[in-house]
Design brief:
alpha+beta, six-stranded mixed β-sheet, five-stranded mixed β-sheet, 8 helices, globular
């Protein structure tokens, strides 16, 4: 797995966290279940699968001590369950799950079951898991229900394990590229998927972003200000771009309330614009933010502490923009060429050509 910084590209001015990933926020973990199958079409088999599930554990005890949260929608051609409730209450009480559009219902059902098993009291109340989706049908046989409860549970368990490691001071950069929910995604004319990055503010707060990158057209790809999509060799597969979408998850350890989380989430759109997104008609850009620095001591209690507000948020805003831009580029650089259903293919970003472009940037301007 190659990250964009390995090509000599440093995005923005703020420093990164130790792993430059979502894991830099203490207690946060990411797990993936990746489904790659080549079987006969139904009814003899399950067809071609290029899909999966990604689970983000923001806090292991989020149900008993909800996490301040908020969201923003740049373009609404997509779905994220739990978004309305979390925005209304300003709180998150489940992990955040990402998957393929047609699998959202299955993942939601599995998440409800797993929450009930972990917290039997949910059976006397209700829980609304946060599940976001992007369309991977260009490479994946979306007409077949590919994801099972076992896949969701596997990603969930991995996320919990990684969260425990991060809480113990042993964070590890999560896998990127064509993994989990990102397995079948396309981005800016190349193979897309999962990407993540982090920033540390002058006040010492960490803010990190994970994207499910599945948007944009090749000619608009911009890397650190260079119009790379127009300068790189033509697409050897010359296939039309899918409609696309982008789900982004922001997590910070700063003390924020739900309203400020929504403000941070909104800044993801600026980072996507830097790499070439204009949120076209058929693309769903949905962003969600959670902040672990100001949590209630019990499920129904008030937030404990004083929230940052106003100009105190400026460095966090900048961190979200920079980390969002870099997360998309990490999704691209970590995704090699993939072949999928019906012979469809999506080319991986040509890393050496990108390295040469950026090394010669003075001659491009």
């Amino acid at each position: 797995m190659t990250r964009i910084r390995e090509l000599g590209i440093s995005i923005g001015v703020l420093p990164t966290g130790p792993t430059n990933s979502l894991s830099d926020v203490a207690g946060v973990g990411v797990g993936h279940a990746t489904l790659i199958r080549d079987e006969a079409p139904s009814p003899d088999g399950r067809g071609v699968a290029r899909t999966g599930v990604t689970v983000i554990c923001v806090a292991a005890d989020a149900y008993r001590r909800p996490v301040p949260a908020g969201g923003a929608v740049l373009n609404g051609a997509g779905e994220c369950t739990g978004f309305i409730a979390a925005t209304e209450w300003g709180l998150l009480e489940t992990p955040i799950l990402l998957t393929s559009t047609m699998q959202l219902g299955r993942v939601y059902d599995a998440a409800c079951e797993l929450m009930i098993e972990a917290h039997p009291e949910v059976g006397d109340d209700v829980v609304i898991p946060v599940v976001g989706e992007c369309d991977d049908s260009y490479l994946n046989n979306a007409a077949r229900m590919q994801v099972t409860r076992a896949d969701v549970e596997s990603a969930w368990t991995r996320a919990s394990t990684e969260a425990a490691a991060a809480a113990a001071g042993l964070p590890r950069v999560c896998d990127e590229g064509s993994v989990g929910a990102g397995t079948g995604m396309s981005c800016l004319g190349f193979k897309g998927g999962i990407g993540t990055a982090s920033r540390v503010t002058a006040a010492g707060h960490t803010v990190a972003v994970l994207v499910l990158a599945n948007f944009g057209s090749r000619e608009r790809l911009t890397i650190d200000g260079i119009p790379a999509g127009r300068l790189l060799p033509p697409d050897r597969y010359a296939e039309p771009d899918p409609a696309g979408s982008c789900i982004a998850v922001v997590v910070t350890d700063a003390p924020l309330d739900g309203a400020s989380c929504a403000r941070l989430a909104r800044r993801v759109g600026l980072g996507l614009a830097r790499v070439g997104s204009y949120a076209h008609h058929g693309s769903g850009e949905i962003f969600f933010c959670a902040a672990t620095g100001l949590r209630p001591k019990e499920r129904s209690g008030p937030l404990s502490g004083v929230a940052l507000a106003g100009a105190e948020l400026n460095d966090l805003f900048a961190g979200v923009v920079e980390a969002s831009e870099e997360a998309v580029l990490n999704a691209l650089s970590g995704s090699p060429t993939m072949y999928g259903r019906d012979g469809n293919a999506r080319e991986g970003l040509p890393l050496e050509a990108v390295r040469t472009l950026l090394a010669n940037r003075s001659g491009n301007g």
